[in-house]
## 1
Amino acid sequence: MKQFLTAVAAAAFALGAQAADPIKIGVAGPFTGGSSSMGVSMRDGVRLAADEINKSGGVLGRQIQLIERDDEAKNERGVQIAQELINKEKVAATVGYINTGVALASQRFYQDAKIPVMNNVATGSAITLQFKDQPENYVFRNAAHDSIQAPMIVEEAVTRRGFKKVAILADSTNYGQLGRADLEAALKLKGITPVAVEKFNIKDVDMTAQLLKAKEAGAEAVLTYGIGPELAQIANGMTKLGWKVPMIGSWTLSMANYIDNAGPGGEGARMPQTFIQEPTTPKRQSFIINYLKTFNPKNSRMDSPVSAAQGYDSIYLLAAAIKQAGSTEGPKIKAALEDLKTPVEGVVTTYNKPFSKTDHEAITANIPVFGEVKGQRVVYAYPEDFKKASEVRVKDVNAKGAMEQKKRQ
Amino acid sequence: MQILTQLVFSGIALGMIYAVIAFGYQLTFATSDTLNFGQGDALMLGALVGLTLVGLGVNYWLMIPLVCLFGAVQGAVVERIGVRPALKIKSEFGWIMSTIALGIIFKNVAENVWGRDDLKFPSPLPESPMKFLGANVLPMEILVIVGAVGMMLAVEVFNRKSIYGKAVVATFNDRDAAKLMGINTGLVITFSYALSSLSAAFAGVLIAPLTLTGATMGAVLGLKAFAVAIIGGLTSGMGIILGGIILGVAETTTGFYLSTGYKDVPGLVLLLIVLAVKPAGLFGKTAIKKV
C-alpha cells in the first residue's frame, strides 16, 4: 500500500499538479478475515479506477489520493476509522463497506459531517434508508441490495426452475438473518412457505442436522444466506450425505473461499451477480485486462468480480460528481450525485442519472443476472443472458421484482 | 431410524474431533495440575504447518511425523516460557494468563504468516461418502476416529508400561515425593507439555481436511474441547472419549429434533449439571486436596 501511495505521489509530482492538494477519498472495508476476498477485490477495483483517473489528469486538475483502512469487518473498527477519516484525514468522500453491520454503525458520522458515503458492496436493505427521514441523506449505494436479491433468488427457484418445496439455510449474523427474513417475505408473495428454515453459526464445522432437516422435509432446493466458508461447509455436508439438490443463494456464493473450499461439491450453485468476469463490452474487457495485469490474481480469477467492478464504478461515480460540483465540499458533491448530468460509463452498467433526491440506489432489479459456479469460476447461468450481455442493462426505476425496502435495525 | 443413525454417526465424528483436542488438556493436567489454554492454537499451528508442508509437495502421511515434531517443540516452548515460572513461585493462577497470552501470540503470528482466510486442506482419502448401516460416513471421519483412539491408546500404554510413563504417573500422584525419589519432575512436566501439543498438532492435521484451516480455527474447537474435558473428567482417558461423543451427539440430535438455533445449548447445560453434581467429571476420580 505504501508503494502504491508513493506511486500515486510520484505520478502527481511528475505531472506537476500545479501544487494543488490531492483530493482525499477514504476506502474502508475488511482487507483481512472471512470477508476479505470481497474487501480486497473492492479495494483493488478502487485503486485501478483512481490510478486511471490520475493518469488522465485527475479531477478538477487535482490527483485523487486514496486513504485505505482495514475495518476487519468489526463495527467498532469501522466507527474508529470513520472518525479518523473525517477528522484527521478530512476526506472529501468515502467508498467501501462490505458488511452491513459496519456500514450501519459507521456512516452516521459521515451523515453528521455532511460527507457523502458510497456503499459499493454491502447489501443490507436498511443502509440507504438509515437517514431517509432527515432532510439531507449522504448515503449512496451502487450494489444490488437484499430487497432485489431475495426476490431474484425466489424467482429463480420457484418460477424458473419450478421448485415448490424449498429450505432456507442462513447464518446467525445480521446479514444472514435479515436476508432470511427477506427470503421468507419473497416466498410468501408466491404463496410458498419454506419446508425448513435452519440456522448455523460462523465457524460451524458440521451441517448434518440442518441438512437432514431440509432433506426430511422434502426440500427440492436449498436457498442460502451466509458467507463463503460456511456455505462451503453446506456444500461439503451435502456431498457427505449423498443428497444433492440445487443451492441458490445470495451473491456471496460467488466468493472465492466458497468455490475453493467446496471444490467439486460446490459446482452448480447459482446467485445474483451484477458483474461476471467475461469481456462482454469493450469497457468490461479493458477493466478485466487491466485488473489481471495489475493485481495478477491466482488462476486469472478475480476473488470477487462483483466487488471489484462495483469498487471501480464507485470511484468513477464520485469523480463525475466532484467534477460536476466543481468542488470537494460534501453538500455540493451530494447535490451533484443526486443530479448527475452526464452519463458515467461503468463496468456494471452505464449510470444515467443513477441517483435522485429520494432514490440513492444505483442498481435496480433489472440489472443483476444469474451466475453459476462452473469449472471453479462464476459464469453466466443462462446462455441467453450471456448472448445479450453486450447490451448494457441500465437502471429502470420501474423494474419489477424488487420488494419494498423497509427500514430495519 | 436411518436419520438417527446418521445423526449419531455425524455426532460421533464431531465428538471425536473434540475428544482428540480435549486429550491434550488431560495430558498436562495429569503431571502439573495446569492446563494449556492455548491448546486450540497449538492445533491450528499444527494444521497450518501441515498445510504448508503438503503445499511444498510432502506426502500427507510423511508430513504427520514432521508436524508432531513441530508440535512437541512448540509445547516445550510454552512450558518453559509460560508455565515453569508460575510453577516455580507456586503461583496458583499465573499459568492461566500466560498460556492464554501465548495462545493469542501464536494466533497473531499465524495471521501474519498464513493470512486470515480459511484455506482448503487437501484430503488424503477419497472425499465421496461410504455407506455404513444405512448412514453416510466420510472416509476421513473414520480416519479421525481411528487416529484419535490410536493416539490415546499409545499414550496410555506408554504411561502404564514404560519406566518414563511411570515417572509421569508418579509426578501426578505427588510431585514432591516423586522429586525426592529422584525423578526430574521439571523435565516430566516439560515432556507432558510437549506431548500435549504434539497430540494437538496431530489432531490438527487429522481434522483439517474436514473443517477448514485458518488462524481462527482453534478458538471454537478449543473451547468445545474444554467442555468435553470437564464433562468427561480431566483424569480419565475413557471419560474424554465418552465426553466427546456425548457432546457431539447432543449437538447433532438437538439440531435436528429441537432447533439448529439451540444446538450448542444441551451440551453446555450438561456441563453445568456435571459441574454441580460431579465436579471431577463423569468418569473422573475425585481428588482430595490436602492442605
Note: Residues 2-32 of chain B form the longest helix (31 residues).
## 2
Amino acid sequence: MITKEKIDAYIEKIPPAPDALKQTVALLKQEELSKAAKAAEQDPALSSYLKQLINRPIYGFKHEVENISQIFGILGVSRSQQTVYSYMTSLLSPKEWKLFKLNQNSFYNLQAELNAKWQKILKHLDINDKEIESAIALLPASIIVSEALFCEKIDDVNLLRSVDEIDLNTILQRLCKMDLFDIAARIAEKWEMDEKITQIVQAASGVKPSEDETIDKLGKWMHLLLFYTLSQPSNIEAGLNDFIDFQIDYVMDIYDDFAQLMEIQ
Amino acid sequence: MRAVVKDGVGVFHPQGFLDGNSSNALLSIEDIDSTIKSNADMVLVSLKKVVFFNRNGLDTFIKMFQKVRSANHIVVGFCDYDKKKYDTIMKFYKDEIMFSLFKTQEIAMLFASNFKKESKNVLLYSEDKSQRAAMAIELHDNGHNPIVAQSKEEFDEKAKNEAAYDIIIEDTFLGQMGQKVAARVTGNAIIYTLSSFLDAEIGNTFNIAYHNNSLNVGFRLFIFDAYKVVSMNVHALNFFSKLASSAAEYNATICFVGMTFEKTPIAFKETLEDSGIMFFEQMDDILGDKELLKELGASSAAVTKNKRVLNKQIVTETPNFIDATVATIEMMTNSEAKKEAAKVDKITIAEKDGKIASSIGFYGDIDGMVILVFPIGIAKKACELLIGEETDDKELILDTLAELVNIVGGKVKTLLSDEDISVDITLPRTYPDIESLLEIAQDKKGVQVDLNFNNDKFLFFLTR
C-alpha cells in the first residue's frame, strides 16, 4: 500500500521551484506576456523547452520560431500558460520510464498532441479561459506521478495485471486509494488552479460526472480526447491505452461532434 | 494485447479508436501466437469499449481470426456491439463474412462447446433463414431450447414477453456458414434480381460460374426478377440469348418476370422468346402455380455435354466432406453415425422408396457436388428440430433438408478454407424422390459412403 503522504511527496516534487519559472507563471496569470517572456528567458531549460515544443509538427509553423517573446506572442496568454505547465510536468519526467514504454521525445509528443487538440476543442466549444486551457497539462503530469508510484510496487502491479483483465487505473486505486484523475486533481491544487479545473479533471474520469452542465461537458470532451490520443499507435505501444477504463456510454452524446472536429473517418 | 481466457473462451478487449495503425499496435505476432497456444474453444474480440472502428482496424483482428481458426478450428468473431456497429460490420464484409458476430458475450457463450451447464430458453431471429436454422441446430446441440421466430413481426411480438426467455438473440451471425449470393431460391427455382440498365456490364456482374454450377447440380428453373429493369441494349440481349442456349443443353428454363418493353425494343422480346426465354408479368404467375412450377423445374434427363470425371484432389478431400456431413446430421438427430461401406463408382441406391435427396455444388479451387440421400425419417427428425414441431408436409421437409445441406456446404467451405482451398457453394437443390435424383446423377461416377444413423441408412455421394 502506498500512503497518501508518499503521493503528496511525489506531487511536492513538482515545481515551480526555480524563481524564473515561478515568476513566469505569476506573470502569465496576470496576462503580462512580454514581462513573462523576459522572465522565461532567464531560465535556459524553460527557453529550450519552449523552442522545442513550439517547433513540433503538431503546431504546424512553417519556419522555426526561436525568440521567447515571439513564442508567447504566437501562443497568446492561455496557450503560453498551458505550455509552461507542460514544462513543469516535463521537469518531473523520469530519466528512464519503467512501466510505460515512453521516453522524453514520445512524452513531449503526447503532451504536444493533447495540448493542441484540447485547444481545438475549446475553440470549437467557444470557450476562452486560460485556466481551462491549462487543465489538459494535468493529464501528462499525473501519468508521470503514476509511473513513479507504479515503479515503487512494480511486482505487485505485474502480479495484479496477470491474474485478471484489470486496468492500471484500478490497480492504482487499489494500491494508493487514488486514481489518475485524483492525482490530477491534487496537482491542480498544488498548481493553485481554479476549483473548476479540479472538477473538470474529476469529470474526465468518466465515472464521476459533474452536476454542473458545462463542467460535465468539458469532462466528456477531455475523456474522449484522452482516449483518442491513447489510441495512437505510439501510445498503445507505450502501454498507455489500457491505463484507464474507457467509459463509452459517458461520451456517446458528444461523439459525433468530436469525430467531426477531429475529422475521423 | 493478450486475450483473457475464461471457461475456454478467449476475449480481447481493445478500447478507444480502432484503425489500421492502432490495431496493428494492439495486436503483435506474439499475441496471435499466444492466442493459438491458449487452446481456447472460442476467440472473441469485444467491441464494447471501441467507440470507433474502420475496416482497416477490423482487418487486423480478422487476419488473427484466420490464423487462429486454421490452426485450432474454433469459432472466432466479434461480440458486444450495438445495432449500428453490427450493421457497419455487415456492410464492410457483406458476402465474405468468415467470422461470427455475437451481440453479447452471453450469447456467444451459448454457442461455446463447453458451455453445457444448464439448458436455456432462447428466442432467436435472423433475417436469413439459413442463419436461423444454423443457430437453432447449434443451440440445440449445446443442450438449449431454441424458439425460432420466422418473421420480424413474430420476433417482436414474442420478445415482448421477456420473462419467457432466458436469452433473446438478434443481430447475431454464425460465420461458418456459406456465402450469400445474389440469388434467392424458391422450391427448386433460382431467382436472380436485375435492375436499372442492362448493357455489356451484365457479363461482368452476373456470376456465371455460380450459374453454371447450379445447372450442374441440377437446378432447372432460373427466374430473372426484372421489375426494376429500365431498359436493355443489344449487348445484354446477346448475353441472355447465349445464357438461354447454354441452359437448353441442360433442359433448363429461363424466365423473365416483370420486364416492361417501354424503353426496350419489343423485337428484343421476340428474339429472347425464340431462344427459349419465357416472360411473365407477375412472380406469382409462376410461383403461385405449383403445376407450372413443377413442369418448368422438372429435370428431364439432362444432356450433359461435358461429363466431368472424378479427380484425385476431390478424392483426397473426401474426409473433409464426410466430416462436415456427419457432424451436421449427428447434431440434428442426436444419433451417432457408423460408416458401413465406401466405394468409388456410380451411385447405387438399394431401397428407393421412402427416401428424399438433396445436393449442393461447390466450385473454385476445386469443384464438384455432394449428394445426400436421406430416409424420410431422418429428414423429419431434422425438420422437427428446425421448426420446433412434427410435420408431414413434404414441401416443408424438403425445404428443411435444403437448409441442412446448406449448412453442410458452409461447413465444407470452412474446412477447405482452413487448408487454403477456396470454394464457393451453390444453393442446395432438393429431390422429392430418388427417380428425380437419378435423372441427373445416375451416370456420374463418385465416392459413395453408406452411413448408418441408429439403423437408418443414409447415403453420401461426392461427385463432379
Note: Chain A has 15 helices and no strands.
## 3
Amino acid sequence: MQSYLYFPGCTLRTVAKDYDTSAKACARALGFELKEMQGWLCCGAVLSNVEDNLMTKAGPNRILARAEQEGDRLVTLCAGCYNVLKRTDLHAKLASPTQQSINTFNEDSYNGGVTVVHFLEVIRDQVGFDVIERAVKVPLKGLRVGAYYGCLLLRPSGEMKFDDPNRPSILENLLKRLGCTPIDYPARTDCCGSYLSVGSPENSQPMSGAIVKSAHSCGAKLLAVGCPLCKYNLESSQLPGAKNAPAEEFLPVVYFTQLLGLALGLRPEELELDTQQMQAIHEAQTRTLEGREWH
Amino acid sequence: MKRVGVFVCHCGLNIARTVNVKEIIEKTSKRSDIVFAADHKYLCSEPGQALIKDSIRQHKLDAIVVAACSPAMHEATFKTIAQLSGLNRYNCEIANIREQSSWVHDDPDKATAKAQITVSQTIEKVKLNEPLQPITVPVTRKVLVIGGGIAGIRAALDVANAGYQVYLVEKSGSIGGRMAQLSETFPTLDCAICILGPLMVEVYRHPNIKLFRLSKIEEVRGYIGNFKVKVRQEPEYVDVAKCNACGECAKVCPSEIPNEFDFGLTWRKAIYTPFAQAVPPAYVLDAKNCLGLLPQACGECKKACDQLGTACINLDAWQQTHELEVGAIIVATGYELYDATKLTEYGYGTYPDVMTSIEFERMLSASGPTLGEIKRPSDGRVPREIVFIQCAGQREPETALPYCSKICCMYTARHAMMFHEKVPDGQTYVFYMDIRAGGKGYEEFVKRCQEERGLLYLRGRVAKVYEENGKLVVKGVDTISGKKVQINADLVVLAVGMIPSAGSKELASTLKASLDANGFFSEAHPKLRPLESPTAGIYLAGAGQSPKDIPETVAQASGAASKALDLLSSPTLEREPTVAQVLESCSGCGICIPGCPYDALSLNANTKLAEVSEALCEGCGTCVATCPSSSLSLRNLTDQQMLAMIEAIVA
C-alpha cells in the first residue's frame, strides 16, 4: 500500500480528532496510508510566520528537518499547520541570512528537501477526482453544502498557490464529484474571525455568524471545512449566547473528509460523525429547498 | 606628434563635488604630450564652447579630449565645436567622468584617480585617431505608420501634408482605433467620432497616403533611412474600391457572432462593417466565422452582391504580401484593456451587471448597443444605484498592473456625469485612491462633476462584489471616515488599466525595437528623446509607448511625424564612419560573416575577400573579435589604440 508521510499537528490530537480519523479512513478506502512522521512537534501555529522573531521559526524548521529524514513529501490536514509548514519551507528555500541563523541554531538543519502538501491536493493531484468519482459508493444526492475555505489554505496566495483566493473552487469541485450540490454564497471567502475567538469572542462571533447566515440564505444545509479553527468559530457563533447569533436553525459544520468518507461508503462511526450530524445530513438530503447552485 | 589639448568640465557640482578637477588639470598639464589643459564650470555652455574654440586656435591644437558627461549626452556638441574650430571632428574624444565616475562613486580620492585614468587613456586613443569623413547614404523619403488609431492617423496626415508618401498599416478592418469606440471625450464632452470621423476620411482621400487594412508587419530589414518592409495583408474578399457599403451581403449572411466593437453586447454577421463610420467604407469578410471558404460552403453574400451588379465579393481572394521601402517608421500600436476576469474579487465575468468602463462607454454611445440608454445587461432595467471602481487592477504591483493608466480618473468623472444626465434620480458612487486630474481644464472638470452633480466620491478600495437578491453588493471602505461601506448597487463599472496591444512583443522583435518592463515601447531617453525608439529611424506615438489620453497622443503623434520629417528633409543621411574595415591580410575564410548582427559583411564576388557594407555596419566590433587573422579593424579603435589605452590604464 502506498504511504504518504503525514503531519497531524496538535489540534488533530485534541479537538479535531474527527478530522484526523476521517482522513485516515478515507486514505485507507482509497488505497493509501497516511504514515505519521517520527517525532513531530508543534508547528507554532501562525506565530511562526511573524517576520521579526526567529525563535518562532525554529519549531517548524525542526519538523521539516525531521520529515526530510523520512521522505520528500509531507501531507498536512490542519489548514494552520499547512500554512505554517509550507511557508517555512518556502522561506528555507530562499537561503536567506535569517534562514542561516535558524539552521545554525537548530541542531538538525533543514535542507529544503520536503514538499509540503495538503490532503486535498493529494486527493486532487495524486489520486485524481476522476478516480474519486468512480470510487463513490453512496452519492450524497441532494445534499446542499456550502464550502468554506477560511484564509489559511488560500492566503497569502502568492506563496500558498493553493487556489484563487477570491474565487476558490477546489472544495466545490470535490463535493460535486461526491454527488453533493455545492452552494455559492457571498460570504464564502470572508474571514471567520480567526484567533479573535480566544480573546474577544464578541468580535469574532458576529463575523462567523454572518458567514453562517449568508450560507443559510443561499440554501446551504451543511458547511464543509478544512480548518479546525474555522469549524470551531462557525459552530460557536451559532450557540446560544453568541453575539448576533443567527436566528435560523443550527447549520452543522463537518470536515470535507467526513463527507468524502460517507460517499466512499464508510460508516459514520469510522468518520466520527455523531448522531446529531448524521441526522442533519439525512434531513438535508430528504428536503430540497430553493438555493443557488455552484457553477 | 599631435598637439593635444584637454578640457575638463565641472558640470556645476555634478562632477566637481566628487572629482578633484584642479588635480586632474595639474597632472595632465605636466604630461609632455599635452600642449594645453583647462577646466570650466560648464563646458557645454556658450562661454565653455568659446574656451575650446579659442584654445584650439591659440595653441594650434590637432586633437582634443573633453572630460565631461556621457558621450550620449554631448559628444555631438563637442565634435561640432571642434569642427567649427578647424579640426576634423574625429579628432575630438569624450572621456566620461560623470556617469562613470562622479555619479557612481562616493570617495573623492578614488573617483578622482579613476577620472584621471579615464582621461589618460582617452588621450592615448585620440593621439592615434585618423581624420575621417562621415559616410553619406541616400534616404528613402517615405514613411511607414503602424497602427490606424488616432495616433497613427495624426502622424500619417502630418507626414502626408508635408508632401511625403505614407504607408498606413492597420490590422483590423477599419482605421479609427479605440477613439472610434468612445462616446464623448473629456473634459469638453465633444462627441469622439464626430471629431475623429473627418480625419479618417481625410486619410482615405489623401493622395499621399496608402492604406493597408487587415495587414500586419511581417519583416523589417535595413536601417535608418533605408528600411525594407514586408506587409502581409489578409485576403481582401471584398473589393474596397467597388464596395458601396449597401449591406445586402450582411442581410443574407447566416452566421451571427458577438460584435467585438461593442464587446459582445451586440451581434454582427460574418460579413460586416466594423462600425458605421468605418474607413475604408467597405465591408469585411471574417473568414474565421464564415461558414466556409475552402471549400466554399455558403456563398450567399456573393450571390446577393452579384445580383445587385456591384460584384465586389471575390471568395477566392488570397493573402498578399506588399514590399515597401521607407526611410522612417512610426509605431502607433495603441493599447488594449487589462483582462477584468483576472480581478476575481469584483466578479467580472460572473455577474453580468459588472462591466468594464469601455463596455459602459459603448452603452453611452448613441450608436452603441442600447443607442445611448443606460441599461443593465442582465435584465435591461435602468440602474438607479451605480458604483464606479477606479484603479481596478492598477497600482497593484503584487497582483495586477503596477502602474497608473492616467486616464481613468477623467473618464470615470465623465461617465458619472453622463449617468447623472441620463438618470437624474440615480445615485452615483465612485471609489477612488486619489484623483489624478493633471491637464488643462481637467481638475475643473472633476470638481464640476463632484459639486454640481452630487456624485459621491469615496476614497478607498472595494474588497468584494457579490450578487444578492438581484442587487450587486459592493463592500468597500471609506478611508476618510474610516468606516466600512456597503452599497447595494444595480450596476458596477470597473476602470481597468491600459496594457500594450497584443502584437507589441512580436512587432518589437520584428523592428528590433525594445520594450519596457510593462511591455510598452521604450523611448530613447525618458525626457529628452521621448518620441524615438533607441533603434534609429523608429519613432513612437500614442499609448503603445505609455498610457496617455487623446490630447497627449495627438501631440506625440505630431511630434513623431516632425521627427520623421526631419530625417526626410535631406535626400541623404550621414552615418558615423567609425566602422569596420578589411585589411590586406584577409584570406576570405568568411568566419566573420555569420557573426555580424547587421548583415554588413559579405564575400566580394571577384576578390573572394571579406567586404564591409559601410551603410549597414554599426561599428560594434564583433567581426574584429571573430577574425582569426586579425584582418578586420575598427576605424579609430584599432588594436594599436586599444593596447595604448590598456597601457595607460595599468600604468
Note: The mean pLDDT of chain A is 91.
## 4
Amino acid sequence: MAGAFKPLKEGRHEANLFRRRALAGFLIIVLCLCALAVRFAFLQVERHDEFSARSEANRVLTRPLAPARGLIYDRNGVLLAENVAAFRLEVTPEQVRDMPDMLARLGQFVPLGEDDIARFNALRKGKRSYQGVPLRMKLSEEEIAKFSVNRWAFPGVEVVPYLTRSYPLGAEFAHTVGYVGRIDTDDLAKLDKGDYAGTTHIGKTGIERYYEDRLHGEVGYEKVEVNADHRPLRVLPDRLAPKQGENLYLTIDSHLQQVAEAAFEGRAGAAVVIDPRNGEVLAMVGVPSFDPNPFVNGIAHADYAALLAAPDKPLLNRVIRGSYLPGSTMKPFVALGGLELGLRRPSDTVLSTGEFFIPGQSRAYRDDVRGGFGRVDLVQAIAKSVNTYFYSVALDMGIDRFSGFMSTLGFGKPTGIDLVGEGSGVLPSREWKRARYKQPWYPGETVIAGIGQGYWVVTPLQLANALATLANRGIPHTPHLLRAVQSGLDGRPEVVSSPPLPGVIHKPDNWLAVHQGMMEVVKIGTARGLNDGFPYVIAGKTGTAERFSRTDDTWTSISASPIERHQVLFECFTPADQPRIAVIVALEAGRSGAHDAAPIARKILDAWLPGDIEAQGIDPRTKVAASSQEPRR
Amino acid sequence: MMIDELFASLRYRLRSMWRRPRIDLPLFGGLLLLMGVGLMTLYSASDFDRGQVLAQALRFALGLALMFAIARVPPLTLRNWTPWLYAASVVLLVIVALHGEGRGANRWLDLRIVRFQPSELLKLTMPMMVAWYLNGRPLPPGWGTLGMVGALIAVPAALVAKQPDLGTALLIAASGAFGVFLSGLAWWRIGLLVGAFVGVVPIAWHFLHDYQRNRVLTLLDPEADPLGNGWHIIQSKIAVGSGGLWGKGWHHGTQSRLEFLPEHTTDFIFSVFAEEWGLVGVLLLLALYVFIIARCLWIAAEAKDTYARLLAGAISMALFVYVVVNGGMITGVLPVVGVPLPLVSYGGTSAVSLLAGFGVLMSIHAHRKTVAG
C-alpha cells in the first residue's frame, strides 16, 4: 500500500512544509477576504446613496390621484353636471395569457361591443403591460354580478370603481354645459402631463371645456409599495391629497331654460335670454339638442353617425354658431344708427309709397304693403316695420358708416361669451365683400342691408347681445354664463363680476325713441296682443326673412309652403322703462315672427315673471293699467 | 491474518467509534453560530416561511448526525476507503452523465428513496483522493506526481463541468488543487501553472456554453441587459449597496421581501444578509468564516500524518473558495456561478456535504494522537 509508512525525518520535514504552506494559504485567504470586504465597503458606503435611491425606485411606485371634477349648478343651485360612482372592467394584459380567447369568453358574461375592443386595443399600446387598461365602462349591476360569479376564470380582469360625469338634465344643457370625454391624442399634446396624470376625461365642449382649468382641480399623489411584478402591496403613508376642482354656478336659470325649450315644441331654432343689466345669460336654447351622457365614455359609432346625419343638425350649437338672417329685427338698430350719426331726428318722416328707388336706378325695393304706409316717423316705421324708412336711412349712412356702427353693437364678431367655438356671423361691409367675393360694393346692397337682408348673418347670441345693449341704454356687457365660483366643499360661492363696457349710445333721446318704437310694435304694431295680461310693458320687434338659397346670380326660395318659407325671429325686452330681461327667439321655419316666434318669447317672459316679482319685492300687477298707459317720451 | 487479530482490531475500532466523541468545541461552536445566522437569514429571506426554515434545520440535523458519525471514523479507515470512495463517486458521475435528470442540467441521480447530486460527493472524495495519492509520494511533488494528480482532478471536474455545473466543478478542482498546494509544491512550479492557465483561458472560452459566456459578459457590463442576464447582478448590487453601514434591519430588506432579488434564499442569500445587516454584519460574518477556516487549518497542522494534514487543509481552504466566489458573485466582481454561501444558503446537499467535511476534520482532530505517523 502506498505511503503507509515514511521515514520519520521525511515525515517531520513534510509537517514543517505543510505548516509553512498552511500559513501562506491562510494569508492568501485573509487577503482575499479583505479584498472582498473592501468591495462590500465600496458598495455599502461609497455607493450607498446611489443604491439606496435605486432600491427606493424599485420599491415605490408613485400613483397619481385624479381630483374630483368640480360640479356645475345653475344660478339657483340646480345640479347640471355631477360625478357619479360607476364600475368599469379593467384588464392587466401581463396577466392574460391568450387575449383574444379571454375577450371571447368574457363576452359571454359582459357584452363587449366592437367599439369597446377597438378602444381597448388602442389604449393598450400606450401603456406598460402591468398597467390596467379599461375595457368596458359603466357596468350594470347585472353585469357586475355575472362577472363576479365567474371571476376565477379571468385572471387579470377586475371590476374597478371610478367616478364618471353625468348630466342629469341631459339634452337640456348639451349646448351650454357641454360634456367631457376621454382624453385623446390631440388633448395629450396640449395637456400638462403631470397635472393630468390620473385624469381620464377632459372637457370637450361648452362650459366643461371653457372652464376646464377651474373644473379640473389639482392632481394628488400616493405612493404604493410594489413587488418585482409591479403588483401593489400596500399604500405608503406619504400621500398628497388631490384638490377638488371648483364648483361653478352658472347664470342660467334651469327652469327658464326648460320652459323655453318646451315652448319650441321640437321646432328647430334657438332662444337666448339675457339680463341686460349685467350680461348674464339666463337661458340659451338650441333645438333640437342631444343627450350628452353617451359622449362621456365614448358614443357608439352608429349613434354618432346618426346624430351627424340628422337633417336638423342636433349637434350644431345654434345659439353661438347658428346662421340666421336677422331681417326686420335689425331695424331698431338701423334706426338707432341713423339717429346716432345725426342723419335723422326721431320726428323726421319718410314717405312710403310701396316702392323705393335709388336715385338714378330703376330697380324697385318694396314695402310689405302694396301702396305703402304713407308718411311715417321713426316710431311708426319700427311699429309697422316700414321698409322704405330703413332703405333710405341705410342709403344715407352709406355702407362704411353702416357697418362701422353695427360693429359697435357687436355684429360681425364673437361676443366673447365664455364658450368655445362661437361664430362671427356676417356683417355686410365693403371689406368683407371684397375679401369674400372679390367684388366691389353696390349701393343696392346697402339698401337691403338696411332691412336685415342681403349678406347679413347673425348668431342668436349676437342679436341678443345687441338687443341687451340697446335695452341697457347703450351700456354693453359681455354676455357670460359663469355667475359664481365655489372652491372647496365648504367654500362660499364667490360671484364673478362683469364690469360694463364703454357705452355705445351717446344721446338718451336716441335710445328713448327706439324703445318707444319697439313698445308700439307690441301695442299696435306687428306683435300686438303680446302684452295681454302681462304686467310689464314689453318692447319688441318681429322679423320674418325669406329663406333663400343663392346659386350664382339667382335667388330661389327654399320652400313653397308658406308655413315653412320664412325664417322667423322675435326680439323683446321688458319692463320697457327698466329692462331686466331681453329675449331673442329664432325659428328656422315659420309663417311670421309675430305668429310663431313671439308666442315663444311670451312663454319665456311668463316663466321669468314670478322670480322677478320676488326679486323686486313689489307686485307690478296691481298697477298694470297705469303703467301701460303712461307715455314714455 | 489471524482470527484473534481481526477480532482485536474490530473491537478496537468499535470501542473507538463508540467512545464519547472528541469534538473540537471552538470549531463546533463556530459552526453552530454560522448555522444560526443561516437559519435567521433564511427566515427573513423566505418571508417568514417556517416550513422552509424547518426543512433547512432538518438538513442541518442530518448533516450534524453525519458529522458526528464521520468524526468517529478514524482517519486511517478513511484513508483505506479513499480509493474506493473516489472510484465510486466517479462512476456515479458517469452514470449521471448518461442517465441523469434535473432542470436544465443533468446533475441529479434518482435513487428512488433519495435524489442527490453525485458531484457533491466529490467535494469530499476529491481532497481525500489527492491526499491519499500524495501521502504515498515524496514531497514536495515533482512534475510526474503533479501530472498524475492533475488527471485525478481533471477527469471528475470535467464531468461535472459538462453537466453543466461550473460552480461545483470549480469547487471540486479547487479542493484538489489546495491539496497539491499544501503538499509543498514549489512556488516556481505554481507560477508556471498559473501562467499556463492564463494562456489556456482564451481556449477554454471557446468551449464554454452560451449561458456561461453570457454570465461572464454580463459581469463585465450588467447594465447592457438590465432585464435579462444583468438583472441578477444589478438587483444584488442594489440590495448590498442599499444596506449601507448598518443595514435596513432584519426582515426590512425590501429587495428580497418584494422579490426584486432572484434566488434570494439560495445563491443570493448573502445579498439579503448584506442588505439587512449592512457592512458591519458582513464584516462580522466574514470574521466568523475566517475564524472557522483558521481553526480548521490549525487542526490540519496538528494532524500527525500527511494524508490527514492534506485532507484537512484542503477541506478548510475549499470553504474559503465558497465564501469568496459567492461574495464576489453577489457584489458583481465574479460571474454568476451556482456557489452557495456555506451553511447559510438554503439547500440540502450542500449543507450535508459541508458538514460531512467538517466531520472528517473532527475525526482528524479527535484521532490526532491515536494515529501514528
Note: The first strand of chain A starts at residue 60 and ends at 65.
